[in-house]
Design brief:
By secondary structure, the protein is α/β, with parallel strands linked by helices. It has 18 helices and 36 strands. The strands form nine sheets. Strands 13, 14, 15, 20, 23, 24, 29, 32, 35 and 36 form a ten-stranded mixed beta sheet that branches. Strands 3-2-1-4-11-12 form a six-stranded mixed beta sheet. Helix 6 links the parallel strand 9 and strand 10. Helix 12 crosses helix 13. The radius of gyration is 26 Å and the shape is globular. The two termini are about 40 Å apart.
Length: about 700
């Protein structure tokens, strides 16, 4: 049986086909922005051809197909979604404007406030009120809802979000208003905030509902076309969608909570990184993924990707907990330019796949990072994408000379080297943002590298950060697509139950989790999982009384909670608070807000590729030499050249060297040593830097 992962990026659409044995097949297809499905279908055709199968035969063998897409994120960032409306409790329609009373850039006196996604004249107040106990204070005025529906329909609204006060404890008014809206506006989409994020904080909950309504029409059309096209092509199972919570889910489940479709592609990279790092005994890693448009970073500690409840897209809170991926506009297609002050900048604007970098020969004329890498000799013009696209060195040199070299008075090589230094600095800052700025020393982590351009910059980034060990998976060029094939199916549930540790009712907690997990198990059973493949995870949002924000803490699972379990929950919060903030207050009770359950369907992989380690290594024979710019030497010189696909298990390559592959290229600097592991992935020891992460892993393994 096969597993298929498909990730649409700004420049390339990546595909991975994974056999049950663990062997992966990779394919990259230029993204078609005007019609994303065209690239998917072309990629499936190309992948099937490389496997000597028809598309129908390949899809017929597939156990699952997981898809990650930028459709939802791009809709929000580009603000090209439909006109939507909002129904709020009367007097609270401006919660989107007031936000949380904090400016995103509080010291910027000229900062323009972000524009809400719903025009004020389309935000309507409804007479209704439920108190914090869930009791009805003011009944819902149904006639008023009908009048608002007519008004919104008159103005061409395609989707409506409903967000009433305290619907998290009693959603009856929201659900009834939604019923009326569907009756009066049968062609409009309707989303209730209590169904998306049943949590306190009106702004975050309202924002999540509004974002869901904003992206729902677009992703509904796209997902249904995806399902129809791949089914017609031979897929026997319904496709799954990668979610920002790090798991995948069926289309109908994602459409109930569309906000989970945001950041769906990048959320898969940490799963791939954890998979490869775990096989090498590495528990703490930083995963980086440098594609054509963006550079994505995520921290993985103790084998688990960092998660956050404060994720925002275009300064709007997503509201739900997700994988904490930090992104900056620094990819292969990022455009280099000279600003008004005469300084060299790179990104965030990208050439994308159309017209793409100048070296593509497709009409692009602005200098990009890819063009700089071509000028410096790192990319083999004839082997890019396995020879399916020839790079134009002459056009890359012209773009670099005209856009960077000329204005700065530099020759093309010096100008290209400057572009690489600038983009590396931007990426280093992104890694520091998820490590140093959070009180973590990156030297204690290993670096797991993904993306078609990641291998070219990995050594320089590791040196800048003091990281001594770098892992470049065989699937690096399609890291997110590979991550989708090894991630689990996941459904998140939560329920508000406000109490403190000295008043926590264990019977109420038992009843709460019985209800949440029954729904999760039923959903996974419908998805085709056996009981043995289902795992339940529990956590709670907690804080000390008087604190404004809470921590999400993992709690033990128990059929019946007794005093010892409640003490474990309390101790878990104290420990997590001390870990993050350096102190604990055990004399204070702990305040609990939301209780969470994650229903996880385990996608076990029969991995015959080995542990990843090799006992010894033999120097590989180069295929020839390439003249490349070596940063440590500051000049262009001949270095040994190798082919990724021809390095055998146990091979060793000493830097400086360049290793070209169909989907990624690796640059080694002087002193670097690369070894090919049992699964044909690569482990690089960075010259002159001791691997503290490796030492820690060895000590833990022998303890």
């Amino acid at each position: 049986m096969l597993r298929i992962g498909i990730d649409i990026g700004g420049t390339f659409t990546d595909l991975t086909v994974l056999e049950d044995s663990g062997r992966a097949h990779l394919w990259k297809e230029p993204t078609t922005p005007a019609d994303p499905m065209a690239a998917i279908l072309a990629g499936l055709e190309g992948m099937a051809g490389s496997l000597d199968r028809s598309v129908a035969e390949m899809l017929g063998e597939a156990r699952l197909l997981v898809h990650g897409t930028t459709i939802a994120t791009n809709t929000v960032i580009q603000r090209n979604g439909p006109r939507i409306g909002l129904l709020a409790t009367k007097g609270f329609r401006d919660v989107l404007y007031f936000r949380d009373a904090w400016k995103p850039e509080r010291f910027n006196m000229r900062f323009a406030p972000p524009q809400p996604f719903v025009d004020r004249f389309l935000r309507q107040g409804v007479s209704e009120r439920i108190d914090h106990h869930g009791e009805v204070v003011t009944p819902l005025d149904e006639d008023e809802v009908r009048r608002h529906a007519a008004y919104l329909g008159k103005h061409g609204v395609e989707a409506v979000a409903v967000a009433f006060l305290w619907s998290i404890v009693n959603p009856a008014h929201e659900h009834r208003a939604a019923e009326i809206l569907r009756e009066e506006l049968p062609d409009a989409y309707v989303i209730c905030s209590a169904d998306v994020v049943p949590e306190i904080r009106e702004w975050e909950r309202t924002s999540a509902a509004v974002l869901s309504a904003y992206i729902l029409p677009g992703i509904d059309d796209y997902f249904r076309r995806l399902k129809g096209d791949v089914s017609a092509a031979g897929l026997g199972e319904d496709p799954l969608i990668m979610q920002l919570n790090g798991g995948c889910a069926p289309i109908d489940e994602v459409l109930k909570r569309p906000v989970y479709a945001l950041h769906s592609g990048p959320a898969a990279a940490p799963a791939a990184a954890a998979h490869h790092a775990g096989r090498r005994g590495l528990r703490d890693v930083i995963t980086i993924d440098m594609g054509g448009t963006s550079f994505d970073v995520c921290l993985v500690r103790d084998g688990q990707a960092a998660r956050s409840r404060s994720i925002r897209v275009d300064q709007q809170p997503v509201g739900v907990e997700g994988v904490a991926v930090h992104s900056v506009g620094a990819g292969g297609g990022s455009i280099a330019y000279i600003d008004e002050g005469g300084a060299l900048n790179v990104g965030p604007r990208s050439a994308g796949s159309v017209p793409g970098p100048a070296a593509y020969g497709a009409g692009g004329t602005e200098p990009t990072v890819t063009d700089a890498n071509v000028v410096l000799g790192y990319l083999d013009p004839e082997s890019f994408l396995g020879g399916r696209r020839e790079l134009r060195t002459d056009l890359a040199e012209q773009a670099i000379a005209a856009g960077v070299g000329g204005p700065l008075g530099l020759d093309p090589v010096a100008a290209a080297a400057g572009v690489i230094r600038v983009v590396n600095a931007s990426m280093t800052a992104a890694v520091r943002a998820v490590s140093v700025e959070r009180g973590l020393d990156p030297r204690n982590f290993a670096l797991v590298v993904g993306g078609g351009a990641g291998g070219l910059h990995a050594s320089a980034l590791a040196r800048d950060l003091g990281i001594g060990r770098v892992v470049i998976p065989r699937e690096a060029g399609t890291l997110c697509a590979f991550g989708m094939t090894v991630t689990d199916v996941r459904h998140d549930y939560l329920q508000a139950l406000h109490c403190t540790s000295d008043s926590l009712d264990s019977a109420a907690l038992d009843e709460l989790y019985a209800g949440l997990e029954a729904g999760g198990r039923e959903r996974l059973t419908d998805d085709g999982f056996d009981p043995a493949e289902i795992r339940m995870e529990r956590s709670v949002d907690a804080r000390y009384p008087g604190q404004v924000y809470e921590l999400t803490v993992v709690i033990p699972t128990a059929e019946r909670y007794g005093p010892e379990h409640l003490k474990q929950i309390e101790d878990a919060f104290h420990a997590e608070h001390e870990r993050q903030f350096g102190y604990r207050r055990e004399e204070m009770p702990v305040e609990f807000l939301h209780w969470r359950a994650a229903a996880v369907g385990r996608m076990e992989l029969q991995d015959d590729a080995g542990s990843g380690a090799v006992e010894a290594s033999v120097a590989a024979e180069p295929l020839g030499e390439r003249r490349v710019y070596v940063p440590a030497l500051g000049e262009v010189t001949a270095v040994p050249a190798f082919k990724v696909e021809e390095l055998a298990t146990g091979s060793r390559v000493d830097g400086p060297a360049v290793i070209a592959g169909d989907t990624t290229t690796i640059l080694l600097e002087p002193g670097d040593v690369l070894r090919c592991d049992e699964d044909d992935s690569f482990l690089i020891e960075i010259g002159g830097i001791a691997s503290r992460a490796a030492t820690t892993a060895t000590e833990e393994a022998s303890a």
